[in-house]
Amino acid sequence: MTEIPDDHPRAESLRTRHRIEAGVEKGITSKQGLIAQGRGEAYDYLLGEETIPSAERAERAAAARLLLADHAVLSVNGNVAALVPGEMVELADAVGADLEVNLFNRTEERMAAIADHLRDHGATDVKGLAADARIPGLDHERAKVDEDGIHDADVVLVPLEDGDRAEALSEMGKTEIVVDLNPMSRSARVAAIPIIDNIVRAVPNVTEHARELKDASREELEAIVSEFDREAALEEAERAIRQGDLD
Ligand code: PTJ
């Protein structure tokens, strides 16, 4: 990998790009994942490559909602595994959630490679390999989930998700927390808590809020969730994109 100087104005973005490339080389990320990353980068550029205030509020609400869950599951795809494997393990630990590999382009090889990669980053239990339940209304491969994982969950964090599956999960009655840089995407629009931020910033931020809120009462957590206004957050992100100061 080419050395990226720290003072390069887009150093973080270039490092993220390299992590996705490495993910493809390791058989973790799909080639389509490269295209998805490019799309994400474009929105991130327009957002100023920073966590905007409405995303910060969404991240706090997400932490509170995950802490309130009976059974929270964090869904991991090939892009998430390449970009934030250790950070996802830390978030799962902080909120007591399960990790489940759930792929758009599912192959047994990629499922196993991602589960191994998460274990290398400290995960003890990785779900998704049993695939003994289905999400209704989706074609066979994309619908595969674990009975004691996503199928059973009341709250699911679905980062970088395709719109069909996000809609199908929401129709199953799950509370969805979506991380997606595009505030106009269908997945962001169906989410109870849309986080319009780069996954590399969003996941550590949610973990930080969760650690800070770990001794908060149920009432305090419920107040944080109910005060979060998803429509306002989506509008604020769209406005930031349309009016952003680009350099
Ligand atoms: O690993 P698989 O097989 O499950 O496939 C994963 C991808 C991402 C390829 C698949 O889910 C897909 O094709 O997704 P889409 O429909 O391209 O949607 C990805 C969304 O994530 C887009 O709206 C992007 O803007 C957004 N996105 C991309 N990179 C990031 C991101 N959002 C946050 N952080 C990113 N780094």
From TrEMBL:
Keywords: ATP-binding, Coenzyme A biosynthesis, Ligase, Nucleotide-binding. The keyword ATP-binding applies. ATP binds at R17, R39, D180, L181, N182, R186, S187, N198, I199. The keyword Ligase applies. Its EC number is 6.3.2.36. One of its GO terms (molecular function) is acid-amino acid ligase activity. Pathway: Cofactor biosynthesis; coenzyme A biosynthesis. Signal peptide: none annotated. InterPro entries: PPS/PS, PPS/PS_sf. It catalyses: (R)-4-phosphopantoate + beta-alanine + ATP = (R)-4'-phosphopantothenate + AMP + diphosphate + H(+). GO terms for biological process: coenzyme A biosynthetic process. It comes from the Archaea. Catalyzes the condensation of (R)-4-phosphopantoate and beta-alanine to 4'-phosphopantothenate in the CoA biosynthesis pathway. Belongs to the archaeal phosphopantothenate synthetase family. Homodimer. PANTHER family: 4-PHOSPHOPANTOATE--BETA-ALANINE LIGASE. This is 4-phosphopantoate--beta-alanine ligase.
